[in-house]
User: Fold this.
Amino acid sequence: MKQKLVVLTGAGISAESGLKTFRDSDGLWEGYDINDVATPEAWERNPALVQEFYNMRRKQVLEAEPNAAHYALAKLEEKYDVTIVTQNIDDLHERAGSTNVVHLHGIITRSQSSKNPRLTYPIKGWELRMGELCRLGSQLRPHVVWFGEMVPMIEPAAKICSQAEVFILVGSSLAVYPASGLINYVPGNVPRYIVDPKIPAVYGVPDLIKIEEKATIGLPVLVDELMK
Assistant:
């Protein structure tokens, strides 16, 4: 039986593939206020703008390539039973070869019904057009969790973390709730590693093994150690 290894990844791992996050220093995401493009209210006000914004983000995702950190995590499956829980909406983990990825905030390469979020569809190419409807007749929107929406995968993710025998946190500032609380579900007696150029303050979690490097440098080194 392989040991259960759980990885929680955040925006930092995708940033090294050139994908910006909404948490830039100016508070904008690609020049847009998140309240105008990443909330249910924004969709109500101007669905065409939201659709266009996510079409551009999807195009960027499809043009991006997995980096050394993504490939290092995929390599872990040779020795461990790996589950990646990611806050990211891109598909770079999958393209690097990881086979068990839980997307907390959805995935941009799929669409979902405006009426029933459980109705999802793959998107061919990068463009989702206004007028494309689900089988219930409602407009298809990006399959992403917007600010102010429930995070349906948080409970399954908490259960996964509670079963970890090895835990790695990479590329996350632990600033996004409720994902930031997942580390507290990890059993206290298992090895816990954190890889980030700026290690965030993690309260109530003793014995964290800290690797203060960006993901593409720190993660391959850690993976080589874990594979021994």
